[in-house]
Design a protein that fits this description.
Layout (H helix, E strand, L loop, with lengths): L19 H11 L2 H7 L13 H4 L17 E3 L8 H14 L2 E5 L5 H15 L3 H4 L11 E4 L14 E6 L12 H28 L6 H4 L5 E9 L11 E4 L5 E6 L5 E5 L2 E4 L7 E5 L1 H6 L9 E3 L7 E9 L6 E2 L17 E2 H11 L1 H4 L14
Parallel strand pairs: 1-2
Antiparallel strand pairs: 2-10, 3-4, 4-5, 5-12, 6-11, 7-10, 7-12, 8-9, 8-11, 13-14
Helix pairs in contact: 4-7, 5-7
Length: 377
């Protein structure tokens, strides 16, 4: 297998003699991903993956993070259809306004389906290089593909993860397009997530003070795309990162994670570890939900650390509009003279284009301010 040049100095990913484009191309052409580097026995993080100091200044990759005493809210959905509905709605409202992140339990997705999905992602990524090479692609039109670093040729530094991508956004995903290894678990999990999506759409509508079918009627979470991430063990986690700090472009993201940690969320100007809770699904508010809620619900920064011990596996389900060209703005029912619109109307296609070209995926900076009413004048 072709490997990348390594080094022994803690330098940044730039320099007068460093050809980043060449190294990125060489890495991509291996079609082996970061896991391939680890399997080849690489003992140093290649320069391509070394991040600038501003991305690394407050990492704690060899611990469980700072003991802040703060924990992401855990919301019990038991009884949300009847006796406890008002309690669940209130809990969701508080968490969405203050944290933008919450872990939900008793959500109706069977543990077997969750474990099966995680195991399928793990098995795919841990196959020998030659077994998964045929699925490697950067073609966005493919409904299933395997790749490493979607922004490899645009970012300042690559991240320490590989991904498999399932696109459910344009009609039904053909099972034949998905590798047999993970086909059954993926579609089983997706069926349950579809039901949970509908329930959360209703509950979040009520949390905004709207009719339960409001978000469903405007189809803001009608489609979904799923990413199965694999974060291999890293020999020098202090030099790189699993996922750069960012906030999601989606309306809502539902995240499944194994028990090896590494995810952090920014809260009260500090990074908080999101400790995995058995049986829980993590939900976080996306940028578009913050936009339509006129800043009532918050989309917040989060990141994933690279770690020396044990690989991290996660499955992110991004809930997106049914029609990408449809314009969305602050919900009119939430506006009055004391609460004027903060953002202008924008389609998800235009928003995401700006997101990719100048925002989160590259620098970790939020792109929401660009769409504020004052910015459009």
């Amino acid at each position: 297998m072709q490997t990348l040049p390594s080094h022994g100095e803690p330098i940044t990913g730039s320099g007068p003699h460093y050809d980043r484009a060449k190294e990125a191309k060489e890495f991509d052409e291996t079609k082996a991903g970061v896991k391939g580097l680890v399997d080849s026995g690489v003992a140093k993080v290649p320069r391509l993956f070394i991040h600038p100091l501003e991305n690394l200044h407050d990492l704690s990759p060899d611990t469980d993070g700072p003991a802040t005493g703060l924990e992401v809210p855990i919301i019990d959905m038991m009884g949300y259809r009847d006796s406890r509905r008002r309690d669940v709605v209130n809990d969701l409202c508080r968490a969405s306004e203050t944290w933008g992140f919450f872990q939900i339990i008793n959500h109706g997705v069977p543990v077997d389906a969750m474990d099966g999905m995680l195991e399928a992602v793990k098995k795919f990524h841990e196959q020998p290089e030659g077994m998964k090479r045929e699925w490697y692609s950067r073609d966005d039109a493919k409904k299933f593909r395997y790749y490493s670093n979607g922004d490899l040729f645009r970012s300042k530094a690559a991240t320490w993860k590989d991904t498999i991508w399932f696109d459910f956004s344009r009609g039904v995903l053909d099972p034949e397009a998905v590798p047999l290894l993970c086909r059954e678990p993926v579609f089983e999990y997706e069926r349950h997530i579809e039901k949970l999506k509908i329930s959360l759409s209703e509950l979040l509508s009520e949390a905004l003070g709207l009719d339960s079918d409001y978000l469903g009627d405007i189809e803001c979470m009608k489609s979904k795309r799923m990413a199965g991430h694999y974060y291999p063990i890293c020999p020098e986690p202090e030099l790189t990162i699993g996922t750069i700090n960012h906030s999601d472009a989606s309306f809502l993201t539902l995240l499944l994670q194994n028990h090896h940690g590494g995810l952090q969320v920014r809260h009260q100007n500090q990074w908080i570890d999101v400790s995995p809770v058995p049986g829980a699904i993590l939900a976080n508010i996306g940028n578009f939900m913050q936009l339509v809620s006129n800043d009532k619900f918050k989309s917040v920064e989060h990141r994933v650390l690279a770690r020396r011990a044990r690989p991290r596996v996660s499955v992110a389900c991004f809930l997106l509009p049914g029609e990408m060209q449809k314009s969305y703005g602050p919900i009119k029912e939430l506006l009055d003279e004391n609460n004027p619109p903060v953002y202008r109307e924008i389609s998800f296609t235009d928003y995401f284009g700006y997101y990719l070209s100048s925002g989160n995926g590259l620098s970790g900076e939020s792109v929401l301010p660009h769409f504020r009413v004052s910015e459009s004048k």
